[in-house]
Amino acid sequence: MSPASPRRRLPLPSWLPASRWLADYQRRDLSADGLAAVIVTLMLIPQSLAYALLAGVPAQMGLYASILPLVAYALFGSSRTLAVGPVAVISLMTAAAAGQVAGGDSATFLLATTVLALLSGLMLVGMGLLRLGWVANLLSHSVIGGFISASGLLIAASQLKHLLGIPLHGDTLWALGASLLAQTGRIQWTTVILGLLTLAFLFWARSGLKSLLARTRLSASAADLVSKAAPVLAVILTTLAVEGLDLRRAGVATVGAIPGGLPALSLPAFDAELWRALLLPALLISLIGFVESVSVAQTLAAKRRQRIDSNAELTGLGMANLASAVSGGFPVTGGFSRSVVNFDAGARSPLAGILTAVGIALTALFFTPWFQALPKATLAATIIVAVLSLVDLGALARTWRYSRADGLAMAVTMAGVLLMGVEVGVIAGVLSSLLLFLWRTGQPHVAELGQVPGTEHFRNVQRHQVQVSPSVLSLRVDESLYFANARHLEDQIYDCVMQRPQIRHVVLLCSAVNQIDASALDSLESLNQRLGDAGVTLHLSEVKGPVMDRLRRSPFPKHLHGRIFLTHFDALRALDPASLAPPP
Amino acid sequence: MSPASPRRRLPLPSWLPASRWLADYQRRDLSADGLAAVIVTLMLIPQSLAYALLAGVPAQMGLYASILPLVAYALFGSSRTLAVGPVAVISLMTAAAAGQVAGGDSATFLLATTVLALLSGLMLVGMGLLRLGWVANLLSHSVIGGFISASGLLIAASQLKHLLGIPLHGDTLWALGASLLAQTGRIQWTTVILGLLTLAFLFWARSGLKSLLARTRLSASAADLVSKAAPVLAVILTTLAVEGLDLRRAGVATVGAIPGGLPALSLPAFDAELWRALLLPALLISLIGFVESVSVAQTLAAKRRQRIDSNAELTGLGMANLASAVSGGFPVTGGFSRSVVNFDAGARSPLAGILTAVGIALTALFFTPWFQALPKATLAATIIVAVLSLVDLGALARTWRYSRADGLAMAVTMAGVLLMGVEVGVIAGVLSSLLLFLWRTGQPHVAELGQVPGTEHFRNVQRHQVQVSPSVLSLRVDESLYFANARHLEDQIYDCVMQRPQIRHVVLLCSAVNQIDASALDSLESLNQRLGDAGVTLHLSEVKGPVMDRLRRSPFPKHLHGRIFLTHFDALRALDPASLAPPP
Known about the structure:
The structure is a homodimer.
Chain A: H1 17-23, H2 27-55, H3 59-64, H4 68-76, E1 84-85, H5 88-102, H6 106-129, H7 141-164, H8 173-182, H9 189-214, H10 220-228, H11 230-245, H12 272-277, H13 279-303, H14 310-326, E2 333-334, H15 336-344, H16 351-367, H17 376-388, H18 394-402, H19 404-420, H20 422-442, E3 446-451, E4 458-460, E5 472-477, H21 483-498, E6 505-509, H22 518-533, E7 537-541, H23 545-551, H24 556-559, E8 564-565, H25 568-575
Parallel strand pairs in A: 5-6, 6-7, 7-8
Antiparallel strand pairs in A: 1-2, 3-4, 3-5
InterPro entries (chains A, B): SLC26A/SulP_dom, SLC26A/SulP_fam, STAS_dom, STAS_dom_sf
Keywords (chains A, B): Membrane, Transmembrane, Transmembrane helix
Domain STAS (chains A, B): 462-575
């Protein structure tokens, strides 16, 4: 049998991204995809239950969110190895948003989580079709980084309730802390011991188990995969402990009965007010889910010299969320750790995702009774270990050292998330990074220039030994001219001239000006007028081609009292030749 | 008596801006200031009554807003000739904001207008103290221009009710139009005739009267001043007509009894909910009032080679609004037409403003009975003529021709103001100009470069006849690298390399890169990694000094697989010397 025989087995339309990888699918890929699917399924079962717990929904919804969404992404996504499903940060955002609109009503809460998946799916597909992927750029890396770290801390704090066996309420660090302090007397110590043991085991598995396995005959990557399966072992051991030691009687809370079977397909009920209230959270969930997922997909694609089309990614993730919504799930996206495991386990194509979905479907059909005695504390410990690896507080110091503005945006995001909740945090972060960007470019570096003697070069008078004309002021602006700096520059230059009554000409060197928008054009017009009224002539030099093309479409070159020189040296030669030093 | 005798007559503290102009006040300035004050007072009386009408408050509040605020600005402002008081656009914004919170209750409406002045005053003073004047830069010229034009149209439409003698309701063009169509049968024709005659006279005065006066022995500037006093003449003539022809019986609405006397000093009652609801409108009123006022002040200052300190202007306008709030007025700012008249009439110092305040105070004390028979139609005509001169629809076409993005922002602002009200309009405008800026700089111009044969210069391969290396890709990015374009550039460069398997090196020419923020640094790191994984080495060349200083504070230069070259020619000489053309 030729290796090409499985080609074009399925009559898929060519516009479907999946047709591309199915067209050259090889039989030998199947075993690789199958193995990866088994490993990811084992990893995904406890994760899907845990993230359902984090999102505040019944455990089976975690399984449902790990079946159809994986199939939808395999058909519509552009990454070959991204593993889609419930992830920690998105589950936290889902819980916060649904909690806000539900007001304590659990039916509304469940409906809200499904509506969030639906709205988020519609938004992502819409952005994909309109090629609006660039909107995600509003989230700067500092904001994303701060958001992920702070969310990790907040998630860990929120899971303390399962480790301590007491109900904690609140969406912020303060609220959770206050809730904890009020109930210290009610801590359930059997649960605490079980939870701490699980935590210790999971942390040890991350480092100790790996080096232990490395000493065996296992390859390094296999050792890595086995150590990543530690949560499965923890699930089995603690479930057996609960059954064997009858810990439920000692007060240990377990997952309890999970209805078996596959999800029924249906659309969430329409409720205009509820949908409207969830629009903004759904947008934030979409953007953050997309940014996180696409960066994982790109990192993995680069390792095999493949490429990710970010608009196709939007559609793929959107379809995954729509699939989640119609099958009773909640918002999903591409997860970092699962995707890395999928890649490392050798997944060759999105078929691995489809096979994983089959694995979870089988679990939902046949194995749910096995999780009845699974302690919630185990799942909480799994979550805590997973999210604490996302927390990178050192990034704050590193970013601050590199750029005060970015560090500040990160700090604002983190403080917002921890003290005022995920939504306020991300919005405060976006606004502060925008304002800081405008503030920074709003006060651009303006250098006064002089001639480097004997050359045609002009340099900053404060940094170099240069020749300066008494009547011609040479200024270089190191920034595009646009609305955020137009007025400031106009004033700065005007004030600078007013302080030196002997100045007759101002020449603006525009070599670093990549754009001049309409506001800056108005400011140049007004500067030209104000300087003219004060008896000073404004000139430009070294205007870039595209900028000059645009200026020619305006009346400014006609209004300009001075000239536009090709080079700054030309300007000085025309305006004050006596000031120029002769060549040595 | 020496001309220096009036120096330092008042023991003012030196931190008060007024101490500066009082210190060198000359006796001969007094007569100039006095004359200007008389002319501005005559102009301000009908304007203050008209803008009170526009703001929806009793006529005397217009007078009150023209007394203490002028004194406060004279003491704290930095412009020598700016005439502060009620202005059209701010009065419209006041009416819209107060109308929204009052819900038809006139006591709440009046309280809201005073609270708006108070909040706006506090915000302006606060921004002045914190030196936050740059926040006003968020309002691009396109947004301001579109806002002023659209507000002018909306104000003119809103005044139709006084010209037609029917009550019109609504804050948008649609609402006003619908209200008008529903009441066409109730139009008060005597009022219409009176209003149209006044309108015709005022329009004629703007052009015809001026040229008529120019033929007399009056100087051009005096003719200009007299023609600007036409509203006063209109007020006198129509008041006499109402009295003489008993037009009130024919249904012509008049200003009615205005309580005489000076305003009592008091603070508006505190109402947390009301204040909170007015925070955003007060911020918008502050910013728009400030931007409009400061540009007038700067234009006038330039004509006498004086300077405006924008932070002092914030404080000055803030104190004027606080003064308005404690004396029963509504929000004020520097007005364009009055300031020009003040300047042209020869005002030398802010004393002209104080004398104008005395003039208005005398009016409030003794002359209010004279306005009892003044028809509202006359005031409406005054407003319409004044605001239609602000409408510049051609600006939309001009801006669009220069820059699609700016034109679009202006169109969004205008449509927002006309169809959804002033607040929505200005917010939509600001957001759209921000998003368009991010979108534009988010997809920067990236040129592939080749060597101009025989030189050390590198130019765009699409525009010039150049020499290209088969293994080294030379790219120049014409934009600072920051969060809005970082990810896009990373993908663009990576995809570009993936399409050409023969490429071994990528050199990024950074001569137009004024900044690299933390997001862009992350993207460079990731690009370096992704290219490295694909067997391609990333290099930089011609990095600017300040950008390089900052990069050195990060681990990026260490992580970079390639090198950072001083010049692009150096890079090619090191990486692929064979590709370089020899000098001719």
